[in-house]
Specification:
Two copies of one chain form a homodimer.
Chain A (H helix, E strand, L loop, with lengths): L3 H15 L1 E3 H8 L3 H13 L3 E4 L2 E4 L16 H12 L7 E4 L3 H10 L3 E7 L2 H7 L3 E6 L2 E4 L4 E3 L1 H8 L3 E6 L11 E2 L2 H12 L1 E7 L11 E2 L8 E4 L5 H8 L3 E4 L1
Parallel strand pairs in A: 4-5, 4-9, 5-6, 9-11, 11-13, 13-14
Antiparallel strand pairs in A: 1-3, 2-3, 7-8, 10-12
Chain A binds a DNA duplex (30 and 30 nucleotides) through helix 3.
Chain lengths: 251, 251
DNA sequence: CTAAAATATTGGTAATAATCAGACATGGTT
DNA sequence: AACCATGTCTGATTATTACCAATATTTTAG
């Protein structure tokens, strides 16, 4: 059972966080016909929240600031575009590990509106975000670090060692002058190392600022990484240099 | 039979916790006709607490703080007094496991202002609360259950089996007519069983309402429990009967 | 590039369910 | 009895959504 208003609010909320919604997907999700979803979209369009287009609708710019809904940080939109790119790499029903970081958290927010994935994480915010989604969520066990809001240590490592997933998405503190991504804490680096060893495809998510930063502990070598996903705001020369070492996905 | 005001308060309470209520569901729950429920909703709408719509009603934004959060607060203060009592049982620097539930969460909030403890938990909200405290916090690993916001399953169990702590504090769904506390889910009950087996002193936290409620799965027998901590609002006769089976700490 | 196939949209209709207004029943009170 | 509060019953009205057929658009294949 579902209230019409409730459905429309949820659609709008999804639209605001994800940017685009599809008629077919919404119809499946809410178990109503296409026509019903279209009426919802038409109504929301009339109210000025979105613009309809073939197959779905997109957020109307300027509508985000409406009092009615959650607002997003300016800064987050860069990270969100990276996360959106990462989303396109996911086969249906695949399993994945999502690491700690602000960009990976954006990915988790987008996954809220997807379903059927098996998602492991060492990050408390990622777990908090995904717990009410229609995905199966697993949290690694162990000691909690305040700074990163993530678990680490032997228990987490041994749990990671017991699984093998399709993909992993990790953040990083930066990789300037380094032959791979880095982390500011050795125990986090150990966790990331273990995660990489237990995923088929390994993706690093990092905006352009990461090109000019680095931390003490190297997580791995670029050759261990399937691809880096970053913005096209990154310096062309730096990107070119990196492309010699690993695949770079721009967005 | 039931008073009208009581019913309306309950409806409002449900609305505040859940966000949406349905006319048909409410009518079934309170055994009155749709028209009666509609009158209830119209009345509550007139008072500004909610917005009616086809099929039910949704919470009015901003109304959350007004209506009778008094009762919620009262309830929370009841739980807090229990948690406060539990605090007095803690030796310095001791280790403990804190289970899932609203009362145990109150305990976690109080522990925010203490330091030097080793605290294990299966509850995400408890971990979220304590992560920025000056205690060492450990989270059990495993699959996340949406409803209780806690982890469960083999990974959690095996991690619990690896430790031995000084005390544990568990919530319960109730224990009327039962020879011990109960839980609504079998997997949660397993977790609680394991926790009890790996703590020296075992405390159950439960306000007086738990005397008249129960769930499907018994966690353990009263003789396995060191003490129940509850309010002195509990019925004297019921308390006396329970005291034959285990220690009862009133506050 | 164009025609055909596949897919999406639109508007109208009908069925189901929810709403509303107001009459009516009940049960306790003065 | 008369009164009031509460809840139920009834029939007319309205909202929501599924279904259908006619168009429009996009994609595919030749």
């Amino acid at each position: 059972m579902q209230l019409m208003n409730e459905r429309r609010e949820l659609i709008l909320e999804e639209l605001i966080t994800v940017g685009t919604v599809y008629v077919s997907e919404l119809a499946r999700k809410y178990q109503v016909t296409y026509e019903t979803i279209r009426k919802d979209l038409s109504d929301l369009e009339k109210k000025g929240y979105l613009v309809k287009c073939h197959g779905g609708a997109t957020l109307k710019q300027g509508a985000i600031e409406h009092p009615f809904q959650i607002r997003e940080k300016e800064n987050a939109s860069l990270k969100k575009s990276i996360a959106q790119k990462a989303l396109t790499l996911l086969p249906d029903n695949c399993s994945m590990i999502i690491g700690t970081g602000s960009t990976t958290l954006e990915l988790a927010k987008l996954l809220m509106y997807r379903s059927g994935f098996k998602i492991f994480t060492d990050s408390l915010p990622v777990a908090n975000t995904l717990i009410s989604s229609e995905n199966q969520v697993f949290l690694f066990g162990g000691e909690l670090r305040n700074k990163s809001s993530s678990v680490y240590g032997g228990w987490a490592l041994s749990m990671i060692n017991e699984i093998q997933v399709d993909l992993c998405f990790l953040g990083t503190d930066g990789f300037s002058n380094l032959t791979g991504p880095s982390s500011p804490s050795s125990s986090d680096a150990y966790i990331d190392k273990a995660i990489i060893a237990h995923a088929e495809k390994k993706y690093i998510l990092g905006d352009y600022t990461k090109f000019n930063r680095k931390s003490l502990y190297k997580i791995c070598d670029w050759r261990d990484i399937t691809a880096l996903i970053t913005n096209n705001l990154a310096d062309q020369a730096q990107v070119a240099k990196l492309e010699a070492k690993t695949k770079v996905i721009l967005c």
